[in-house]
Amino acid sequence: MKKFSAIVIAAGRGKRMRSQTVKVLHPVAGRPLLWYTVSLAGRVADARVAVVIGHQADRVRAFLEQAKAELDPFETVLQPDQLGTGHAVQQAQAILMPSGKVASRHCLILNADTPLLGRATVKRLLARHEKDKAALTMLSTEVSDPSGYGRVVRGDKGHVVKVVEEPDATRAERAIREVNAGTYVVETSFLFRALARVRARNAQGEYYLTDIVGLAVDEGRRVACLKTADASECIGVNTREDLAGVEQIMRHRIRTRWLKAGVTMLDPWTTSIDEAVTIGADTVLYPGVTLEGQTKIGAGCVIRSHARMTNSVVGNAVTIEDSSVVDGAVVEDRVTVGPFAHVRPGSVLGKQSKVGNFVELKNTELGAESKANHLTYLGDTSVGKRVNIGAGTITCNYDGYQKEQTIIEDEAFIGSDTQLIAPVRVGKGAVVGSGSTITQDVPADALALSRSPQVTREEWAAKRRAGFSEKTPPARKSTSSSRGRKKGSKGPPSPLAGEGRVRGK
After folding, report:
1. Residue 255: partners with Cβ closer than 8 Å, 6 or more residues away
2. 106 flagged as catalytic
3. Across-strand partners of 227?
4. Which tens digits make up the pLDDT trace of 352-367?
5. pLDDT of 321 strictly over 60
6. Element (DSSP H or E) covering residue 424
7. How far is the C-alpha of 92 from the C-alpha of 71, rounded, in Å?
8. What is the mean pLDDT of residues 5-23?
9. Does residue 491 have a pLDDT over 90?
10. What is the reported pLDDT for 209?
11. Which one of 104, 110, 167, 490 is least enclosed by Cβ atoms within 10 Å?
């Protein structure tokens, strides 16, 4: 028979959160609260893991299914009516005692709103339970302000005799600072037998799991308790204030982990790293960097101030300049991005490519050693190797109904202020002149130009200046458009004044 199964209680609504979202789906460091406890249960239990869901069960189940690939195997069970923690645990009996036989000797019980609880502490709890041969072993801690927590009541010899919830506590019991962490290890056969005896005789009218402590004492069974010195592990999230506090502690832990792994942070307290992020050694993070989601950063990178990266994969020796956003993209080795660049989902930046300031890419592949240095938009575009994209280039990928692709082959040169009207292809080694609007394919090694001929009037400016007196020219009397010269005005007409096209010689 296996030693430990686990139950994660995730059925409550969390009224004090004042949210339309069930409490266990609120994120901490990029992961829902529930993820932490289900992950922990899977890592310490050697038998079945049951997750008890209730309020917004469909949403909770959908998240669990989505995360199933990275969580150890578990099963969900529904608590249709939220009648208390004891009633929630009872719903897992069919999973942990199939056909009336226990699936494991002991059961670990966790609450889904305690994301800071560590694996090492739980392992010590399991070891204490086995060593003391207890029917029930609970986790406790001591806090300066025990408000909101159940109090651990001990007898004359220091043994735990009961746990009393705050609404039911006497004045003397409320003064106790040792509180229940809501984490237990219970002999499986005793657990469900005791729960059958629990009654809803309390201020809340609920079936309390904590009542089984007193029932064990009444039966003369051993109740053990492990008091952890780190009270933060026992923080339960009940309010937005709790959530904010837990967020700060979790992010501090994450930063500490990466500092120990060889990552440099110039100002750790302004650096935000989600739990799922990975970072290579010798990477330097400047103040204000945010790394979100499943982002993976290689070794030896430099990420400068106020850059944000979300669900992206970054190679080695990459530089992300100030105030750049990289979202859902792949950035290969020795690439430079930014400053003020926006690399959007579906984009791939090849080795040693460059995306410069105020450049936006969407669903675009930029080949190795290619450059888009300034003020450019590339959407739904495939760019080959060693291509130069001039400043102000736009790939016009949307015609108001559907999006089309632009293809720019290896070693092409795109002049500044060019519009490429998709679908269009620029062949290998071709040159597109500055200021062109390209609507047709450009063959390999060809030159494509699409602009009006330049008109030059020699001495025009000098004659215009000579035509005016030294005084400031009189202001126009009307703002209405005028296509001709004013009567009595001197000098040639200005092409800047809306007088139509300028004729050639």
Report:
1. 265, 268, 271, 273
2. no
3. 140
4. 999 999 999 999 999 9
5. yes
6. strand 424-426
7. 19
8. 95
9. no
10. 93
11. 167
Banded pLDDT at 98 (limits 50, 70, 90) = confident
User: In sequence order, what are the residues at sequence separation of 6 or more whose Cβ sits closer than 8 angstroms to the Cβ of residue 384?
Assistant: 367, 370, 408, 409, 410, 411, 412, 428
Whether 185 contacts 108, CB under 8 Å: yes
Helices (H), 223-375: 240-260
Name the token pair of 307.
């850059």
pLDDT at 499: 37
**Bridge partners (DSSP) listed for residue 78:** 53
Tabulate helix, strand, coil % of the chain (nearest 5): 25, 30, 50
DSSP at 504: -
Q: Is the pLDDT of residue 175 over 80?
A: yes
Q: Which of the four pLDDT bands, split at 50, 70 and 90, describes residue 476?
A: low
Tokens of 468: 């005016």
Catalytic annotation, pick one of 106, 252, 342, 374: 374
CA nearest to 295, candidates 310, 306, 305, 281:
310
- Mean pLDDT computed over 370-397: 98
* pLDDT class of 157 with cuts at 50, 70, 90: confident
At 407, list the tokens. 């293809």
Strands annotated E in 168-265:
178-187, 223-227, 264-265
- The pLDDT, as a whole number, for residue 236 is 92
CA angle, corner 63, sides to 62 and 69, nearest 5? 105
CB 158 within 8 A of CB 113: no
Name 459's Cβ contacts closer than 8 Å, sequence gap at least 6: none
Euclidean distance between the first and final Cα of the chain, in Å?
A: 101
- Please indicate whether residue 436 or residue 203 has the higher confidence score (pLDDT): 436
The secondary structure of residue 454, as a DSSP letter, is P
Query: Cis ω on the peptide bond leading into residue 423 (within 30° of 0)?
Result: yes
481 backbone φψ class: left, alpha, beta (φ>0; ψ -120 to 50):
beta
Report residue 137's pLDDT band, with 50, 70 and 90 as the boundaries. Answer: very high
Whether omega for the bond prior to residue 287 falls within 30 degrees of 0, making it cis, is no
Whether the Cβ atoms of residue 139 and residue 125 lie closer than 8 Å to each other: yes
Pairing of strands 272-273, 342-343: unpaired
Q: What is the DSSP string of 27-66?
A: EETTEEHHHHHHHHHHHH-SS-EEEEEBTBHHHHHHHHHH
CB 197 within 8 A of CB 215: yes
